[in-house]
Design goal:
single chain, mainly alpha, 2 domains, 8 helices, about 0% strand, globular
């Protein structure tokens, strides 16, 4: 039954991911593609939509995947699945963290988890960069010199530069969308 499968899959993602929505990305990629619910390019588009719409990334992406896979009820199952573990865990942690926050073991665990989350996010970013820039084609000079690659690279560089300069994410998203429309009209 697809609804239970969506709930269970996103419950598992929510349960075993620390660090927020972006840390979930590698697991979301793995599970969604393994189930055949989406291809990498479609998932990358949903990631872009999830990032540019209001609300938490994890909720947005689970809602989109659920809706695409099984309609409104699918989106409810996937969203409930991804949210429920965090809700339950934070209730438990809130009760016991005050007693153990100065524990050396807890501090060491958090140190290790933070490093792992950054590594997982970097791996997911690499997979998305390959999809965005190379559209699943082998990396070759001919693909690097294509106008759509060059436009994507310029938009990416401008967005990173703007983010490092603390430009509002809203301005970056709107500007990137406008630049993408312009490039799409000119070169695609």
């Amino acid at each position: 039954m697809i609804f239970l499968e969506l709930f269970y899959t996103f419950f598992t993602i929510g349960l075993f991911t620390f660090g927020g929505g972006y840390a979930m990305l590698p697991l979301i990629q793995e599970k969604v593609i393994a189930h055949g619910w989406m291809e990498m390019e479609e998932l990358t588009n949903f990631v872009a939509i999830s990032e540019s719409t209001p609300g938490p990334f994890a909720i947005n992406i689970s809602t989109y995947v659920g809706a695409e896979t099984a309609g409104v009820l699918g989106s409810l199952c996937a969203t409930l699945g991804v949210v429920l573990p965090s809700f339950l865990i934070i209730l438990i942690v809130a009760r016991i963290y005050v007693r153990f926050k100065n524990s050396r073991a807890v501090s060491a665990t958090m140190f290790g988890l933070r490093a792992a989350v950054v590594g997982l996010m970097a791996g997911a970013l690499w997979g998305m960069l390959k999809t965005v820039f190379f559209h699943s084609t082998p990396v070759a000079w001919s693909s690097v010199l294509r106008p759509e690659f060059l436009c994507s690279a310029v938009i990416f560089a401008a967005a990173v530069t703007a983010a490092l300069k603390k430009v509002s994410p809203i301005i970056i998203i709107v500007s990137s969308a406008a630049a993408g429309i312009l490039c799409g009209c000119l070169f695609l």
